[in-house]
Amino acid sequence: MSSYDIVAIGRAGIDLYSLDLNVPLRDVTKFAKYVGGSAANIVVGAARLGLRAALVTRVSADDLGDFIIAFLEREGVDVRHVVRDPVHKTGIVFAEIFPGKESRFIFYRENAADLYVTRGDVEVAASQTRSVVITGTGLSAEPSRSANLHALEVAGRRGALTVLNLDWRPTLWSAPKEERVRYYMEAVDMADIIIGNEAEYMAATGRDDVDDALKSIPGRDEKVLVVTRGARGSTVYHRGEEVHAPPFKVEMLKSLGAGDGFIAGFMYGVLRGWDYYKAARLGNAVGSIVVTRHSCSDGMPRYDEVIAFIEQHGGF
Predict the structure, then answer these.
(1) Which of 64, 80, 195, 273 fits a disulfide with 90 by CB distance 3.0 to 4.6 angstroms?
(2) Number of Cα atoms under 13 Å in the Cβ half of residue 228
């Protein structure tokens, strides 16, 4: 039996989100501090839904790293594969919040600890899980890129589901387009499930149209391709079939965290043996709840709460 249902590899950092609503970032004076980062958000969301979740990452060996680890432990996430790095720093994100609008944010990730994850860091967790999730940001630099690809290889050999969260963050890449696409496509080739929005699919494949991007993916019919479309819901493509899951209408506080919430919910459904429509609807629901809350990680709903939300909005 596997030790984990889901292991995520990648960003775990500090989110500093504005408490001054409708104020541009340059004028904000008050922030709330949360644990953030795509990988951390996903495993917190998965743990709150009831999955056995673990995170593989590196954090700074200081108070910020301790803050992240303590929060994850309280949430029931296994942190045995989180390394306190004495050299590199925990990344920070500053974000403004204009309710109902896209959130503008700035990354501070110079010398970011999570990009120094090694093959040795991922080996054990990737060999003991039913699914492993890597992120596009993890492909942006070494040694993280090799470690993430190794995790897909280790998990894939054991028959675990391999998942690529495209996670396209243009400011976090220094490689030219051709290199970026090559790195993404190497991970795409190894992944069973690929999840991202339309812009992320285009960035990963180098195509200028989302339909062309989807068609360009080698072996696409055998993979599960999931396109998240925000207020338009989500679409799952598999073996020539297209399944669309409608959205949930909510009053959005911020746009951040929806994709991470979707992945947590979708993977819960997949790992529980649900069909792709139901899994995607759960993912839509989790993402919809997260965008109504100030935090991403701490805004993740628990299973009973998200099921009640779905029932209140017409059911699956």
Answers:
(1) 64
(2) 29
Is the pTM for the entire model greater than 0.90? yes
Domains located in the chain, CATH noted: 6-11+38-89+115-312 (3.40.1190.20)
CB distance 129 to 155 below 8 Å: yes
- Is the backbone of residue 55 left (phi > 0), alpha (psi -120 to 50) or beta? beta
Which segments within 86-155 are labelled E, that is strand?
Answer: 92-95, 105-108, 131-135
Q: Which candidate, 49, 38, 36, 55, places its Cα nearest to that of 129?
A: 55
Confidence band (pLDDT; 50, 70, 90) for 150?
very high
**CB atoms closer than 10 angstroms to residue 174:** 9
pLDDT reading at 1 higher than 90: no
Class of residue 314 by CB neighbours under 10 A (exposed 0-12, middle 13-18, buried 19+): exposed
Report the run of H or E that residue 310 belongs to, with start and end. helix 303-312
